[in-house]
Amino acid sequence: MSLSEVGKRLIQETINSDLINNLGNIVHKLIPMLESRQESTILPYLAGNEVEDKYLADLQKLPAEFEKLVEENDIRSAIKLVLNISKEYSSVIEVRKPWELYKNNKTQELANVLFAGTCAIRTVFVLLEPILTTKSKEVYEQMNFTPEQTQLKNINNFEQLLNHKINKSKKLFQKLDVTDPNVNLKPLEQQETKTKEVKDKKAKESSKQSPKEPTKEQAKEPTK
User: Which chain positions lie within coiled-coil regions (predicted)?
Assistant: First the structure.
């Protein structure tokens, strides 16, 4: 079974509106700032600011929440949950204004903002790698992530990114086209098939358990 055209369009719209327009913009803003402000280096994080502390705490909860939705066969909600992290980081940028932090020589606060963004990029693309296989690998190369750093079991190990050096920035994102053979929709197709099978099975079991209404002839028969 393949994804319906409606399903494909939904995925395309979701990816283009959330991933490309939000996280894509963050990647394109974050990497140049790391290059020009921190010599392409992820500097150590120092807890103490409520905005970044809360964001990183929410980020650490994300893998478990994502896995729960996947186990419940709610793939689209799982994807939206992951993509929402980009919107939250946009809020961090708006509140913290890293360009002003740099201008005012608040180097540690700037380092915190950029560190949080780096963690977000890794988490999002590791979780979405089964769908955005090619794009995730391009992001890993851009961020110079090692295979160990992109293992699912390690994405909450933020300390792995301390003093990490990224590669030179380049344009990574184009609008997603679900007809592109490089876009891997197979995991979603398999999941949609599984979801349909589960629903069909439940419906069948429910119909067996429901008492059948008596026919007109049976209803007329006197009770013995």
Answer: none
Helix (H), strand (E), coil (C) string for 132-174: CHHHHHHHHHHHCCCCCCCCHHHCCCHHHHCCEECCCCCCCCC
In sign, the C-alpha dihedral spanning 142, 150, 125, 135 is positive
How far is 156 from 150, CA to CA, in rounded Å?
Answer: 10
CB 177 within 8 A of CB 51: no
Alpha-carbon gap, residue 172 to 106, rounded angstroms: 29
**How far is residue 124 CA from its own chain's centroid?**
4
What type of residue is 53?
A: D
Residue 74 DSSP label? -
What is the C-alpha separation between 219 and 223, in angstroms, rounded?
9
**Percentage helix, strand, coil for the chain under 3-state DSSP, each rounded to 5:** 70, 0, 30
pLDDT tens-digit profile, the chain (224 residues): 344 565 556 665 655 666 666 767 778 888 899 999 999 999 999 988 899 999 999 999 999 999 999 999 898 899 889 888 888 988 899 999 999 999 999 999 999 999 999 999 999 999 989 888 888 898 899 999 999 999 999 999 999 999 999 998 777 766 555 565 555 555 555 555 655 666 677 777 777 765 555 555 555 555 54
Q: If you search the block for the tokens 């119909």, which residue do you land on?
A: 207
